[in-house]
Amino acid sequence: MRSPAFAIAWEIWWRHRAGMTLLPCGLLLCGFLNRTAFRQGEWAGFAVALSYAVLAMAMILTFGFFHFTEGQRKGGFGSYPQRLFRMPVPTAWLAAWPMIYGTAAVGVLYLACDWLMFVPLDRPLPKLWPCLYLVSGFTLYQAILWSFPERRYLKLFLLTLGAMFIAFCWMFFLPHMIEGTLADWGYEGSPKSVQRGLLVFFAATGPAAWGFSWLRLRGQRHGIAEGVRGGAAVIERLAEWLPARTERFASPDAALFWHEWRQTGFILPLAVAGVLAMTCIPSWLSGPLTGQTTMGLLTWMVIAPVLLAAIIGRGFAKPDFWSPQLGVPAFIARRPVSAGQIVFAKLKAALCSVSLTWGMTGITAVVWFAAAGDFGGIDALLAQGKIYYPGGQRWLLAGLLLAGGMMLSWRFLVSGLAAGLSGAKGWFYASNGITAAILVGILACFIWTGDNDDHPIRLYNLWPWVEWLPAILCGLVIAKLATAAWAWSRAHEAGMVGGRGVAGYFAAWILAAALLALAAGIAFPNTPWLRNLLWLCAALVPPLAGPGVALITWSANRTGGSP
Hints:
By secondary structure, the chain is mainly alpha-helical. The chain has a domain at 1-241. It is built from 22 helices and no strands. The radius of gyration is 25 Å and the shape is globular. The relative contact order is 0.08. Residues 453-457 have low confidence and may be disordered.
């Protein structure tokens, strides 16, 4: 290569050439549709909402393209490529070039999305503050990834805090949002002064992130970075609070569960802890909250474990969460254990992780509500519940809904096991793409709902699809049961799992589906069509076929092609 700058640029491009080629093509397609099909008509509003969701997903992908790290076993999401430390290039430039390229890519992508997707819909985006805002988030993202190579849980926690910061700061640049939000938080000053302060902060974040990365990379390069100390190290200690074992494990299953728990058990709880910290602490410090704000924040606390489980589940499905590779780790491949033991260890670790997450969320929500919340919203909700449900049914329904939230989180966490354990990159990335498309669609619907007051969800347009739902759901249930019967029977015949394991899992699935069906029956006793649809959904939510297929794909991946 002619220069280090060109070499770094080429490496970033070569690693992600497929994604960097497909992303502009997708944006061009969205722009073409907005200019031709959605520019006029009743779906123009949905096109705007979908464009916002596509912009968000494009930014997430761009962040991933420019992370510029290499996977390490102890490094969590990896570290700055240490082989580059041998190059005769100052550390300041090693830290600067990836940041410069990523900053330019983020800015160009944002402006391109504005011109391609929003200008044709007569909804041009502001230019200055979003670019500063995105560049600030991107440089913080890279600084966190590079600066803590041996602190994977600390890195995960800081990334969650940064994501929450970026996810919420945008509203302080919208006049109708900032005035109402600051008023609810008790701020009586000028919103313009807050906006100017944020612009200065965002403008200074990039150089500050570069300077911090430079110092951390310099320490790593010269062998003087032993890790973080003080308050930062406390987070890592809390994440690894389990004591080291000195006695023998009771069985191979216990050893596999311990290994999986130590590897992945704290990922979801730490991510949710970051979300709760960024939600509860600022709202508590800001002063008295209104009932509407209280209910909105409580709703977000409930949604966060489910949403993050869907995102983290993409990595949890891999044989090793902390490695970018889909191959079987040598530590596991050499162990004389069956595929069933390994898959069940991941299922148990996911269940314990979800239980810990929801327990932490419930305790935090109660303490926060007692300290800073407004009881008006809860009182109105309880009064409405008394109208429809007797006292015993209210509390039973609340418990069943909590169990349903835990079940949904667990499903999202383990739903990709079959694809991730297969080692097939095409299947794995296709599964991730489908999940991303679903999340984009849901985000677009939420944005669209918030922008329409007359008919927020426009069921009159969706009703023809609703009429087909019973047949579609019945087909999915039949396909799920047939696939589960085939997969589990084949796994049992191949000796991957014993008969007791199969019977136990099926019994657990029946119990979980029955609890969800009971919740639907209590919630909608006088609406037969909706209750019946929810009963079918109750059979689809608990995973049944996926773990069985995961047994087969994992065995094939482990043996190099045949289960």
